Amino acid sequence: MKAMALLLLALLPAAAHAQEKVEADIQVDLTSKNLWRGLTLGGPSLQPKAEVRWQGLYLSADAATGFDSNDRERIGLQLGYRAPFGLNVGFGSQWMSGIDDMNRYFHFDERETGHRFEANLGYTCRYFSLQAYTTVLGNDFDVEESDKRCYSTYVELAVPFSLGGIDWQARAGITPFESSSWREPMVVKDKNEKLKQYLYGDGFTCVQAAIRATKNLRVAGYELPVYVEMNTNPYAEKAAIMAGITLKPFQKCGGCCKKD
Length: 260
Hints:
Number of strands: 16
Strand order of the largest sheet: 1-4-5-6-7-8-9-10-11-14-15-16
């Protein structure tokens, strides 16, 4: 955390070239499946997101809430800085239901809490985005070695491109080493057993490989992005095709809606 804070302070002088006024965005995605970093958290879900920015500094909040009571809910908060040359650094929390029996958000016992506090470092340019997230605090232990902090890490490369009048994005997510784990009751060969489950994986492995196609529909002068995604988890040997729509209530179509 100390190194992250020093890096953040070192980047602040570059903020003089960033926007001087406060900017904000909000959006809500309606998706057919709740997927996150290779994990399947449930079926159809609402995924709201809000962000406030000022001179490179940003505060963001995002979540995923399913329509089924058995689906897992997720809430993410992050405070960070984006430099004009593409580097970003941040620190935040990822909270997930189903870990604490009472699903308490304001419960921070590291052995019981649903919180994982993680540091983020990344770089974004017009050709790609590379982001790394490492858990440094919170519930991040090995179920078989209760004193072993795993420092669960997820690294994702995203590459955007255009083809056939559609915006595409290819993504690959890996974990470089064994992540935190727990045991879940499962029926195996007509027997009830508790199998070891991992946040990401049990070693260096690819936990997400996906490709998304997005098309902006034009409705009453506003853009309405609709997307379809093929999402796979090679480690878990799972695959899903999902669809979604993004609602950005204050984002007008920037001249693209004008007729020729």
